[in-house]
Design brief:
With 316 residues, the chain is an alpha+beta fold. It is built from eight helices and 14 strands.
């Protein structure tokens, strides 16, 4: 694989309001792509931090994650958890041909967001929304829906990871070695399961910005028996721009009571630039202190380092 260490200055992320249930996830970073609108909870935006919600990232397991005005629907959802889980599993099975496990129910205005993880491959995290009538305290299990493009983006990530299996293994090994070499950590697996959407791991997440991946999704939905070789062949034949795949490495300082270290940030950037065999895409590095907001699932604060003039590292 040829490496082209070209650096781009690009500002990522626009705030998107979830429609339908009028749910505004205060914790979300969202980006609009040709394949739809992806919402990734947490990173790449500054939010008002209540210090009582700040906990060490190593201790955060997704508990306390909340959407606005969800207290009442939280209670109703919990009382109807079994029916909600059945409805959401059916939704993903029928619409996305994917079996899922439910990790978290998060109430919001007029509904509940149900966070799931796919079983097997393609692997991804996503959420569906189940409408709730607060006055009658009833759950509309026939009205399950998903935010436009959110699950599609997640599915694209799972298929991309299958097509680039060897390169993704290199990326996983790379970020794990970074955590051994430097005093940094990622999120816990439990936090990812309960709060994330998309192809997401404790150390990084992916976003997609091209119709090519919409076509890839369509291929899978028509034939779930596609091999990894067929997926890779399709992407090789339908060459996508490198910048169309955003790979965000999201790290926290390992020790408490220290600010993100600019020297460590620069060294990790250099290692990404020099690393061969990584998946094709545009790489961004985020470095936070040790604290994460348990309510919003975000580590982004005033002291977080995201130097957009140097942080998009292009891997061909």
């Amino acid at each position: 694989m040829r490496t082209n260490n070209k650096i781009l200055a690009l500002s990522l992320g626009i705030t998107v309001m979830l429609t339908g249930c009028n749910m505004v996830p205060n914790n979300t970073k969202s980006t609009e792509a040709k394949t739809g609108t992806e919402v990734h909870p947490g990173e790449n935006q500054e939010i008002a931090m209540n210090t009582e919600n700040l906990v060490s990232v190593q201790d955060y397991n997704g508990e306390g994650y909340a959407l606005r005005d969800g207290e009442e629907t939280d209670k109703i959802a919990e009382a109807n958890r079994e029916d909600i889980e059945v409805a959401v599993k059916k939704f993903f099975s029928e619409k996305y041909k994917t079996e899922v496990i439910v990790h978290n129910l998060v109430g919001a205005v007029d509904g509940v967001s149900v966070f799931v993880e796919s079983l097997g491959e393609p692997h991804f995290h996503a959420f569906a929304i189940v409408p709730i009538d607060v006055k009658s305290k009833t759950v509309n299990t026939d009205g399950v829906w998903s935010q436009e493009g959110q699950v599609e983006n997640a599915l694209s990530g799972g298929l991309y990871a299958m097509a680039y299996e060897k390169e993704m293994a290199t990326l996983d090994s790379f970020v794990n070695n970074i955590a051994k070499e430097y005093p940094v950590v990622g999120k816990t697996k439990e936090a990812v399961d309960k709060t994330d959407s998309g192809y997401s791991t404790p150390f990084y997440y992916l976003n997609f910005f091209t119709d090519v991946f919409g076509q890839l999704n369509s291929m899978y939905l028509e034939n779930q028996n596609l091999s990894k070789e067929q997926l890779r062949s399709f992407l090789d034949e339908n060459k996508f721009e490198t910048e169309a795949v955003k790979i965000t490495i999201n790290l926290f300082m390992k020790e408490s009571n220290v600010d993100p270290d600019k020297e460590i940030y620069s060294k990790i950037v250099s290692e990404i630039e020099g690393m061969e065999g990584l998946p094709r895409g545009a790489y961004t590095l985020l470095l936070h202190d040790n604290l994460i907001n348990s309510k919003y699932g975000s580590g982004s604060k005033n002291n977080s380092i995201e130097e957009t003039t140097i942080n998009e590292i292009i891997k061909e």
